[in-house]
Amino acid sequence: MKMKSISLKKVIMSLKYLLALVVAKKDKRDIWLISERPTQARDNGYCFFKYMRCQYPKKEVYYLIDKKADDYNKIKQYGNVIQFDSWKHYLYYCKSKIHISAHVNGCCPNDAIGISRRTKRILNFKDVFIPHGVSYGISEFCLKKYTDINLYICSGKPEYENIIENYGYSEDEVAYTGFPRLDNWKDKKVDYKLIVLMPTWRAYIAQNSSVYFMDTQYFIHYQELLNDDELSDFLENNDIKLIFYLHNEMRKYVNYFKTNNKNIQIAYDDREYDIQNLLKTAALLITDYSSVHFDFAYMNKPVIYYQFDQKEFYQKQYENSFFSAERNGFGPVAYEKKEVVDEIKKSLKLNFQMEPQFYNKMREFYRIYDDKNCERVYQAIEERLS
């Protein structure tokens, strides 16, 4: 029975990994691997890789991506790109000293995570974690007791303090450098006719097969907002476009959402937009608990929080810590659909400018506010790990 449970794919994977391990031990080098999702190059990893290739071209830094992915076309110009899950991926995974990713074990070949965890001490590499989002609450999967992270990169000072206090890492394992993607966001061209509605995911919905999605408050509230007559009239009368962009983990539900409003576009495919460019371009962000509001506010642009399920979210998904939208947020908080529409109208009257009290809160979070984030990440890795 045990022999039948071992698939040919796992046997091949194990052999590739073990062969790479043997070869790599004879040729261990100061190689840095960088990855996001296997099909993406659009976030901190991409920005940091581009910086390293331009500023430190002699450094052996490589990016892992599926070369069939759309994002490959924009990263291939920098060279040092490795096909994800290829033999070279296995080999360089074992030869390298630094793994940089937005995911825990993100640089690892897809099927080799179990083996890699058991051989990390043999390979003696270090993991650098640059998360997609700001860690403003407590995420269980990122706690030190569950990870092999050696350096945790933070975007803001209160976030840094939160990681030190609640996540179990020492001060040597956490660096307040700022996120690489923030370096380029001062060079933005804002479209004052564009609003983005970008809610985060709900683990207790997406990971629960017994949940009927159309009965969830998540679906009901956003579907009602997308079809609200007052919002529709406002957008049409002011020639404003609103893009509804679902979180990656909720994208499997995107086809449930419908609207007859010609000024609202539902992003049914995440390839329609580069999320970083979309955030740079939009004049106003409407979100719930997504950490994209930190980046958006960093660009000195207004945010509206729509938190209709606040109690449920903080009970079931994300234990809150230092941050609450009411106390620390960078914009007004709405709990009902009508409040959201009213706040959108108010923001237009203010020419989509961030109000002073919210700008001050943003600067309290971002004590470092410049375009040197990539360089600080590089220096932190060199000083603490290399």
UniProtKB/TrEMBL annotation:
Coiled coil region boundaries: none
State one Pfam family annotation. Answer: Glyphos_transf
Q: Which domain of life is it from?
A: Bacteria
Q: Which InterPro entries match?
A: Glycerophosphate_synth, TagF_C, Teichoic_Acid_Biosynth
Q: What is this protein called?
A: CDP-glycerol glycerophosphotransferase family protein
Species of origin reads: Hominisplanchenecus faecis
